[in-house]
Write a sequence for this structure.
């Protein structure tokens, strides 16, 4: 199973009054990683996959360690844990470095492909499913475990 690696820059404004990255900022980090992951299939090769839109149906986040500002980006590893006919679940770990044991956040997001013009959910295409399966960990490894 492959993991998508996103190097997320940190901003001074990400910190809260207690000197660590605010909990809601992690949603923005996850969004940046998810968009980088999902849209790698679409724009570059002319594929319409995922370009039509998607919506988040659910987020689940476990905060493991406080993260303070630094100049180096944090690493967000993401992978797919579930593919249904009209939704997928992406899992994440926010870390110091690629493959590192120090994990700040473990999270998951349920994403629903969405037809923006028709204003309704749509099914995952065969092309999208083929792309997602390269990142599939159907054993659930690393997903929101204590």
């Amino acid at each position: 199973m492959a993991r998508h690696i996103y190097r997320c820059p940190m901003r001074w404004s990400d910190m809260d009054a207690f000197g660590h990255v605010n909990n809601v900022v992690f949603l923005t980090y996850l969004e940046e990683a998810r968009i980088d992951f999902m849209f790698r299939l679409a724009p570059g090769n002319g594929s319409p996959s995922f370009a039509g839109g998607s919506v988040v149906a659910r987020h689940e986040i476990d905060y493991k360690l406080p993260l303070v500002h630094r100049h180096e980006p944090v690493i967000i590893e993401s992978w797919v844990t579930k593919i249904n006919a009209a939704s997928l679940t992406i899992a994440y770990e926010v870390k110091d470095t690629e493959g590192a044991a120090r994990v700040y956040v473990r999270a998951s997001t349920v994403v629903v492909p969405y037809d923006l013009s028709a204003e309704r959910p749509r099914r995952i295409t065969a092309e999208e499913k083929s792309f997602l399966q390269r990142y599939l960990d159907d054993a659930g490894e690393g997903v929101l475990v204590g």
Observations:
- The chain has one domain: 4-133.
- Residues 4-133 form a domain with the Thiol Ester Dehydrase; Chain A fold (CATH 3.10.129.10).
- The beta strands are 4-8, 54-63, 74-83, 88-95, 103-115, 120-121.
- Residues 15 and 21 are 4 Å apart (CA to CA).
